[in-house]
Amino acid sequence: MGTQFVFMDDNARPHRANIVSECLQSEDITCMDWPAFSPDLNPVEHVWDMLGRRVAARQPPPTSLPELWRALLFEWCNIPQDQIDNLILSMPSRCTDCIASSERHTMY
To answer: What's the Rg (C-alpha) of the chain?
Structure first.
């Protein structure tokens, strides 16, 4: 990948393992600095939450892997665009709050 990409992870413990760091260095992968305790700065984490809530609200719930797959695909395709837009528009405020909180948890 090299300098064409910047890799972002969420500081989860498995991502901090020496073997991961060594692999990233050996492949010359540039990593984004990421504050601790800040999953709210990763928009896709909120999208996963939306998706999970939508699937969990289905009646009747999926009872097999194929049903779950269909439900996930359907709900993914039907997350309202305005929810995604609002999430993206909230990112500057989220970043400001993260900086103000000295990288501790924020209201988000």
So the answer is: 17
Give residue limits of the domains in the chain: 1-34, 37-101
93, 64 contact by CB (below 8 A): no
Region at 102 (left for phi over 0; alpha for psi -120 to 50; beta for the rest): left
Q: Assign residue 28 a region (left: φ > 0; alpha: ψ between -120 and 50; beta: otherwise).
A: left
- Residues forming beta bridges with residue 30, ordered by sequence position: 6
- The answer to whether 87 touches 47, Cβ cutoff 8 Å, is yes
The DSSP string of 26-63 is HTT-EE----TT-GGG-HHHHHHHHHHHHHHT-SSPP-
Tell me the sheet residues that pair with 6: 30
pTM here is 0.67
Tens digit of pLDDT for each residue in 63-84? 999 999 999 999 999 999 999 9
